[in-house]
Here is the input.
Amino acid sequence: RNEKHEIARQKCMRARNEYLLCIDAANSSLYKYFADDVSNIIDVCCLIDIRHLE
Here is the structure.
């Protein structure tokens, strides 16, 4: 019985760790999007607007 419990606990811990790694990867992607990509998109939009005004 203790062996089955230990096997189940290890599977649970592996699944939890995989979940946490996936959450971290998703958070990193979101951070990059809002920190870098949105800023670049705004810069390009501003350049396009300035060129249309000239």
Q: What stands out?
A: The radius of gyration is 23 Å.
